[in-house]
From TrEMBL:
Protein name: C1q-related factor
The entry's keywords: Secreted, Signal
Chief subcellular location: secreted
GO cellular component annotations of the record: extracellular region
Localization terms from the record: Secreted
Length: 119
């Protein structure tokens, strides 16, 4: 069960060029300043529940994503994308929002990606 404002770590890491993402803490730390694209996708497990997630830059919410499944749609998906200009040392993470209706996530179907598009 995710708790409100809990950082959601994406621990099944396939690629980590530049080693900026820490799968244990769920935090990406910028090593190279520039413009980045971040995308995250969440799938929840329980029918009738919803989960709002936020992408956070240095403690400030900069994007939202809502995953929700109604009674006839037992597993809800939500995806969102943001473009951010980061400085060296900036931190980015995904967290469950305080106003979420508690729901478990299906980790296998969740993902987080970030990549540098311009220096």
């Amino acid at each position: 069960m995710t708790r409100p404002t809990t950082i959601i770590p994406f621990s099944d890491m396939k690629t980590n060029i530049g080693t900026g993402y820490d799968a244990k803490t769920g935090i990406f730390t910028c090593n190279t300043p520039g413009a980045y694209v971040f995308l995250w996708s969440i799938r929840i497990a329980e029918p009738g529940h919803g989960l709002e997630t936020q992408i956070v830059l240095n403690g400030a919410t900069v994007g939202y994503n809502t995953s929700g499944g109604g009674d006839n749609n037992p597993r809800g998906y939500g995806s969102a994308t943001v473009t951010l200009y980061l400085q060296e040392g900036d931190e980015v993470w995904v967290r469950a929002a305080a106003r979420s209706i508690g729901a478990s996530i299906v980790e296998y179907y969740c993902m987080f990606t970030g990549f540098l598009i311009h220096i």
